[in-house]
Amino acid sequence: MDTPITAPSHCVGIRPAVPGSIPMTWHLNDDGAFTRHAQQPGFTLMRDLGLEPADLLQHDAHHEAGHAVLALVHGIPVTRVTTIPNHQHAAHVQFAAWSGMWWSFAVTMAAGERAGERWMREVGLATPERLWNAERHCASDRHQIVETAPEPHAVVFGQMDAPDGRQALDYLSLCEAADALLTGFWPHVRTLAAELVEHRELTGRQVADISGLPLPAPPPVTIRRSPRAATGDTR
Question: What is the pLDDT of residues 190-207, one digit of tens each?
Fold first, then answer.
């Protein structure tokens, strides 16, 4: 469900935590991962999240639509969105080369997780088991956010201090920023998700036309990057 990705190394810039953050409890899982939703006793990770195939497709479509819509909002060029699995990953978004603020990239990556959870809550499918499973399956999004955070910052999950002594930015801040933007653009996400469910794959141009948001043009100069640098999430 999650394939590791490499964000453009030229994404820079960071913002402080969102003022007035609502306290959130982070739970330490048996394997050392942190989750907002408590690990379920005796409950293992499930690729299908315990959902019927049609509902899993809806969840994944909303996850990817959340990424794609906020990418366009932040001026990040989208080249492809798909919910068709292949040998590397299932649903995913591909981005063109882009140079911009790290915060924008990080919020865009966090938006997939938040959009998928929001959809499950709206349709009455959110259970502790499903929410925890869905959160764990977003590990590659989180990993990419953590790994690309510019110095001297570190993204952490509820800890007061970063393990390596750098300035800590709680992942909660990114979730709150993504939630706020998703609230304003939720109709765009829902419309795009519906098209992803029907067609399973869309080009960046189609994403822009369907969502009604402008498709940013990639930089005129090719930026050398790793083969995975243009691949977003991951489901």
Answer: 999 999 999 999 999 999
CB 1 within 8 A of CB 233: no
- Cβ-in-10-Å burial (0-12, 13-18, 19+) of 222 comes to exposed
pLDDT tens digits along 117-137: 999 999 999 999 999 999 999
Alpha-carbon distance 173 to 21, whole Å? Answer: 7
Residues, the chain, total? 235
pTM for the model stands at 0.82
Dihedral pair phi/psi, residue 130, rounded to 5°: -70, -40
Alpha helices by DSSP H, the chain: 53-73, 102-122, 128-136, 139-148, 171-199, 204-211
**Does the bond joining 8 to the residue before it have cis omega, within 30 degrees of 0?**
no
Tokens of 89: 């990953």
- Among 234, 235, 232, smallest CA distance to 8 is for 232
DSSP bridge pairs for 82: 92, 201
Both ends of the chain: CA-CA distance in Å?
A: 4
Q: Which amino acid is at 187?
A: P
Q: In angstroms, what CA-CA distances link 200 with 3, 51, 155, 172, 176?
A: 18, 18, 33, 31, 29
Residue 211 contacts by C-beta under 8 Å, 6 or more apart in sequence? 68, 69, 72, 188, 191, 192
Amino acid at 116: G
CA distances from 97 to 75, 121, 154, 230 (A): 11, 34, 24, 6
